[in-house]
Amino acid sequence: MTLTGWAQTLVFFLIVLAMTKPLGLYMAGIFEGERTFLSPVLEPVELLVYRLGGVRQDEEMTWASYALALLAFSVVGFLYLYLVLRTQQWLPFNPQHVGNMSPELAFNTAISFLTNTNWQFYSGETAMSYFAQMAGLAWHNFVSAAAGIAVAIAVVRGVVRSSCKTLGNFWVDLTRSCLYVLLPIAIVFGLFLVWQGVPQNFNDYRTVRSVSGFVQHITGGPMASQEVIKELGTNGGGFVNANSASPNENPTPLSDLVEMLLIFSIGSGLTYTYGRMAKDTRQGWALFGAMAILFFAGFAATYAAEAAGNPLVHHIGVAGGNMEGKECRFGVSASALFATVTTDTSCGAVNAMHDSFMPLGGLVPLVNMQLGEVIFGGAGSGLYGMIAFVVLTVFIAGLMVGRTPELLGKKIERREVQFALLAILVTPILVLVPTAIAVLVPAGVATLGNAGPHGFSEILYAFSSTNANNGSAFAGLGPNGFYYLMTATNMFFGRFAVIIAVLALAGALAGKKAAPAGAGTFTTNSGVFVGLLIGVILIVGALTFLPADVLGPVAEHLALMNGRTF
Amino acid sequence: MLSKRRLERRVKARPLFQRGILVRAIGESFRKLDPRWTARNPVMFIVEVGAAMTALFWARDVLRREGPASFDFAITMWLWFTVLFANFAEAVAEGRGKAQADALRRAKSDVTANRLDERGNVTRVPAPALLRGDLVRIEAGELIPADGDVVEGAATVDESAITGESAPVIRESGGDRSAVTGGTRVLSDAIVVRVSANPGESFLDRMIALVEGAQRQKTPNEIALSILLSGLTIVFLIAVATLAPYSVYAGAQQSVTVLAALLVCLIPTTIGGLLSAIGIAGMDRVMQRNVLAMSGRAVEAAGDVDTLLLDKTGTITLGNRQAVAFVPAAEATPEQIAQAAALSSHADETPEGRSIVTLATQQGASGAPQPGATFVPFSAYTRMSGVDLPEGTKIRKGAPDAVVAWVREQGGKPVEGLSHEVERIARSGGTPLLLARNTEVLAAIHLKDVLKPNMRARFDRLRAMGIRTVMITGDNPLTAAAIANESGVDDFLAEATPETKMEFIRREQSSGRLVAMTGDGTNDAPALAQADVGVAMNSGTQAAKEAANMVDLDSDPTKLIEVVEIGKQLLMTRGALTTFSIANDIAKYFAILPAIFASAYPAMQSLNVMHLATPQSAILSAVIFNALIIVALIPLALRGVRYEPRGADAVLRSNVLFYGIGGIIVPFLGIKLIDVLLTVLHLT
Fold first, then answer.
1. What is the pTM of this model?
2. 3-class DSSP state for residue B251?
3. What is the ipTM of this complex?
4. CA separation for the pair A181, B476 (Å, rounded)
5. Of the candidates B246, B653, B656, which has its C-beta nearest A436's C-beta?
């Protein structure tokens, strides 16, 4: 590890810290229906959307109708994207004459983008027309992120409202997330990326002869516009296969920094929005604090593992950190940082190959995803996942002060525990069971790139990633019918089972009366609470995965230390 | 004071473990192995299923004469022990209640009642034949056959059968002391009682059912916690079940016995096994304080109370006011005043009257009443009492305006100077009386509410718990404020009527607060029912007792404070053991995972941080620790986590340190110790 490596990370974090409050404040205003400096321009558009969609702005929804609206919206979105992918050959903006996608790949991809996962069993440069990229994938990059933010806001309303049956209006929250939050940021930083050198055109790929005489196809297309929302919306699906490791998607150190900041921006900002809407900003900072500690712990572990390098490589006389699968432009520290950032959140964009990380370096991204991506987390999904953990922490630890546990004055009882637990326990079930099926059936191990614990890690990573809607991969795992179906199912339930559980949780909380805090009340904005929250996240969130993780990365690491590889 | 002394005696008289209870509990723990019983507790049910499965595999090993039969046997035994220990904890808790129920049942011996019909004819019927509404007559020396209200007469009653209190109490018709309880004995006089409970529904019946746990329903918090524990159990079941194929893939296939051992170690058996014992013991502790809680829910709610309403009289102050000073009018000498005051009150048997005599005697008045004097008793109309002496002197004491009017009537001219003093006394929280002889006002008598000792400390304790105390009084706001200030209560509700009480409770509740109150009169019944925790005094009316969700057999209004503490303790004990149980898993993983994967990945040995001797001893040690910790924690479950009234944050910090961090460290030590013992004794 180097001082520069840590300094970079610290600078990155300080910028995240600095932007949390302004962005959070702005979002709180948006969702509490205030006018902002963008209203003069955007309000006519917003009202037009409502008029076209027949949305009555002030109509409030119960948690169930909110969830139904989201599901209906998602079903239509799925059909639309599936159709685009199956017919892209005949649609415009297709200079490469890319063919139609096969039904199973189109199905998998449509689910993947619908659920904000962006798991890619294809290479963007050969399998996607520009139209499919822009009108199909980018559309979902915006609306799936907006839907996540909408759910997070609905859940926050559930926590802060009292004696109230409703959580807001899904269509309004969705529209406002898109128009006021995602679009303006995407436009500004899309232009920034263009300035840094990310292509934005409709040209065919360019074929050039390189200095060394090779023929090379240089990709182009409407890349910057999709790159920016890929990070901002924590989608992570690369325009090209190499994702942010490709110089076209991520040309400079500055673009690398900005991309990471975009990944964390919504997740960190929403913690402030939560505090603001709860009328106690310390509540938000407490969540931010827990997230920040887990972020640094994860980064330190990955960075240490990668910087220590591979002993077997050291034996053959190559000193230094592990550089396999890393861009020389970024090196060990920036790759470790990007990997931590992209798996803390449900982004899944990568600037290095996680499959090539040291076993313990790869363990951190794996664990991050298994925790349910609550460390800043996906756009919206990070906050609502964290609130489920908060409810559970309040319940377990809150009992120890000798009162029925309360979150912001609301008693955590049977229903709240039920739904919070459901939201959290969906993750281990949806990761461990499919992994078990995969190691049992021939189709599950047929396309493995590696044997032994590393092969096991590839399967475990695939299901951890799809369930958490991350979308990054240990690249060793190849596609086949089994994985098309299994990962699609996993992405779908990983997204919507959690959303339904947290909305039900919010519905239950919204209906409760809030008691004023007293000296005997368990406080959820103190340092002790932050510690407890981290403890519950690690113990309840990660303990169930421990046997599996031990058989994967840990076994591989221990074997490697004894000179064995797989 | 008496009740407190008796309380101490009672608590001391019942040690945590009694031989008889323990013996009975051992038998019970085997009876509770019935799967229909364990199925009510998902955590222990899974353990039992695991134990049954490992037993089968052990049997198979024995029959085939291959495989690790002795290891399978040891695991099987300890898994059964785990279930038995949990059953034992529950049985001990129940046994303590049963012992109490048996004592109560003795009071319910066969009683014959004298039933009166409309014409007053007496028929002798067995007590169980009495129905609600029947009238019965009970003479001195007889047992009261059923719960009811005294409708005629007054009697002293020995209620020691239910309260343990040996001093007799007075029960009389009308007023707030009319309720009698079946199974108690009339000591003197005779009363007619209207029966208020049908057979099987009496107070004693309910009490027996409650302490036996027969009617035990899970409380809301217990249900929520059960859901958490079941959820964790399901997930660990999945984690262990999926480990089977994983280990096949890794080339380290695991036996069902090993997987069952791992599963039982991971699921929260500690809290799962002790959960119902904690609840039963909590109710039992409330009973030991001589409070009868109608449901566990009420005790739990007591722990959540935000606002505590306390009646001033009898709770904060002693029921009677005492004279503390005579403020003389200009002409009167202290001797004259003392003498007049003594004379006016010799025949006055009220506590106030007696206290005036005491004060006067201290100030030099002669102790003896004057012969031939005529006592003029207090009436609501005159609002004065006094004495007419044979030589014609008339002395009166009473409400200032009444006395002033009387003096004018006698042709005197009352002095204005004292009106200032009268106001001062009222403002200080006291009650002013005027003392007059014939045509002159002699002095103002300062009657003062006497605070019960240690009240300020109690309120401070409540404040530290985060509970706001509100004094309820019929006094005017001025007096109320003074007493509130002196006693250290947080707030007061002056000039309270049943309606304003209700209004106050509703207002607190609508802002999300939980309200507790004590009461005894029929007037209090609606407010008792409205409050989240209502404690009726046993001496009170049947209406109050029915509206409340707890009855204090000692009729001590400050008992509520102890109930609140027990409620808090109950929740804390659950939280502490849940935290402890979950934190234990870390050490158990470190014991078992290296042990089971060492064959496939020898390097895993480096995760064996406890250096456990062999894979088998590692697994067995974890299972034994897991079983023994249940037994080790039974006393804690029965006694409850120690509660100190401090702010929530301070309580949390120390409990997290003790049960959370302790829960991580203790099993490392425990498992290592068991492993060393197993190795030394060659048990593996």
1. 0.87
2. coil
3. 0.92
4. 60
5. B246
